What does this fold into?
Amino acid sequence: MVSNEPKKSKAGFRFVGVRQVAAEAGVSIGTVSNVLNRPEIVGEETLSKVRDVMDRLGFVPSIAAGQLRGHRSKQIGVVVPDVGNPYWSSVLRGVESVIEAEHLTMLVSSTHQDKKRQRSILKAHRSQGVDGLIHVPIYDSPEDWEEFGNCTYGVVTLDHRRGGSEIEESVGADDVLGAKLAMSHLLEIGHRTIGFINGPHFVPWCASRAEGARSAIAAFESPRNVQLIEMTVRDLTVNEGREAARKIIDNPDITAVMCGNDMTALGVLLTCQELGILVPDELSIVGYDDVDFAPALNPPLTTVRQPSYLIGVAAACQLLNKPFELRDEPFRPELIVRNSTMKIY
It folds into this structure.
């Protein structure tokens, strides 16, 4: 038996459709359609009752109106942490290369690792009536994007460990392995007091990279001799990296720093250059992502490579149910050693 009762998340959000509104208000689906599209022909009492139900249930009218008219927006919502980050720009190019062939366009937004902003963006995408969603969740709350499971193409998440949600497919790289490779490299070249600039631990990939860094230390031959000094920043940006670098430089024992991404690593490098700190002679730096600018820095950045473009292609193919052969799932990252790290023994 199918229930018309709206689902309620742990956070108190209700995800409802036209049928739920009609059932709750005690009217037909056609009446709900008229309330949305031709309110002038609906009686005042009925109009008020249906609108009250919509408000109470947190109903988003515009997406429902499109569904009632059988209209498709031909848009795919894509929600990433920061569209200005070259890594995510590359992912977006991969997505675009697939969906363009299907005559679809992207509606792109950035969360900047802000929970409230993510909720607001998802609500806006629902109101736009997108036909599918590719989403990089900054925290594990699948009820926030559950309603998109009813879209034409459904939901694909990136870099997300599924928390029991049945409505999403997931694509991503092995962040635990990638961070383990980066930290192991620093340990192998003699570093024992290491700074780690990372984003908030509620962000899935930040938590995974922290796990990987710690697992590398735990597997090291003498883990008790290693000190990991963790610094959490609100967002993995150049400016946050610049600020965190000053705290690292204030600690003379730190000989290397591992960064949550290449943008943060760039911030650290810029601060070192401003203060006359020689990289890698006085401080080794490891980034993460291997974005386009990484080999062009001075010195070229040691980092962890992720196949960002292919991840975007795979996500779009998964969303549109198009064939795409994954050699590895999740994708395997690769350590790229350049000149921003050096042995200290």
Notes: Residues 1-14, 162-167 have pLDDT under 50 and may be disordered. The CA atoms of residues 74 and 252 lie 56 Å apart. The chain has eleven helices and 13 strands. The chain has three domains: 7-68, 75-171, 175-306+331-336.
